[in-house]
Amino acid sequence: MFLATVSKPQRLLYLSFVQHVSVKELERGRADFVALLADLPSGFRLLTDLSQVESIDVECAREIGRVMELCEQKGVGLVVRVIPDPEKDIGMNLLSLFHYHRHPRIVTCKNMVEAAERLGL
Length: 121
What we know:
Shape: globular
Number of domains: 1
Largest sheet: 5 strands, mixed
Radius of gyration: 13 Å
Low-confidence stretches: none
Helix content: 25-40%
Distance between the termini: 25 Å
CATH superfamily: STAS domain
Mean pLDDT: 86
Number of helices: 4
Order of helices and strands: EEHEHEHEH
Structural class: alpha/beta
C-alpha cells in the first residue's frame, strides 16, 4: 500500500509505504501525488516512511525514481526518510543519486520520533 498526504502549514509532503507495495499501486497513486505536490512551495520537505514495509516489488524503483524527479522539479529542500531496518532500504540512496540533481539535504532516521525532531515538528 502507498499513502500520500500533505501539510501545507508545515510545507511537508508525507509518503508512507505499508506492507507489500506494488508498481500498480504506485502508478495509481501518481495523479494524487502530483495534485498534492502542486499545493507545496519550492523548498518543501519530504518525509518518506518505510517503517511498515514488508516488501516492495523491484519494478517500483522506476516509479519511485519518477516521484523523486517530480519532487526535484518542484524544488524539494529536505528529504527525511524513516528506515528502521537497513534491509528495507530499497536502494533509496542510489536512486537519489540519479534523480535528485540539485542534491537536497537527505537524512535517514530509525523512527518517526527522530524524523519529527529533524523536521522540527
